[in-house]
């Protein structure tokens, strides 16, 4: 009798264990399903990181994404003031720097001499020096990016990829048209304004933009496939293509 009861209890415990394992498996499937769905979501340019990480993270990304509205607004306001001074008011850089130094030096000189008559302390002019480490870091990053750009141009000019050549040619042609419409300072200001508006708007409407970009990319690939079949495939290939196929 005791053995029969023990066997019944073992069967009941086995059923409970099976139920727990099945429920845990279902929970794991539920937990894994959102991640699998997220993995299938299309992101523009194949992006896998958040927008903040794509922009490099840190303070520059905080400024571009308006994490602190006062700082971002101040930076954009200073850039706008510089553009107005040099572009609309047609100020010269050397003239502006010279006038600024004249005003600053004259104010400090008069304050230092007038302090003897008004019984006030002289202005404390702190020493100004540029730290060496940030400059070297910036120069290193700039040098690596320039070398990377030269490597990309070299790869395009080698004739290995016709698609890259056409994209580069079209981009440079568009850039030349934009350059003929405005000068370098205006173009730099437009890029600066876009950096302060496009990332924050994209972060806000990320899902809608990615969905639209996915449809546009599918359409572009279809059109490129037609163009490749009718035009590009009929262009004779160089010896590099033949060696790779062989």
TrEMBL record:
It is a multi-pass membrane protein. GO terms for biological process: response to bacterium. Residues 13-35 are annotated as: Disordered. It holds the Pfam family Reticulon. Its main location: endoplasmic reticulum. Keywords: Endoplasmic reticulum, Membrane, Transmembrane, Transmembrane helix. Residues 60-246 form the Reticulon domain. It is found in: Endoplasmic reticulum membrane. The chain crosses the membrane at residues 71-89, 95-114, 172-195. Signal peptide: none annotated. GO terms for cellular component: endoplasmic reticulum membrane. This is Reticulon-like protein. It comes from Actinidia chinensis var. chinensis (Chinese soft-hair kiwi).
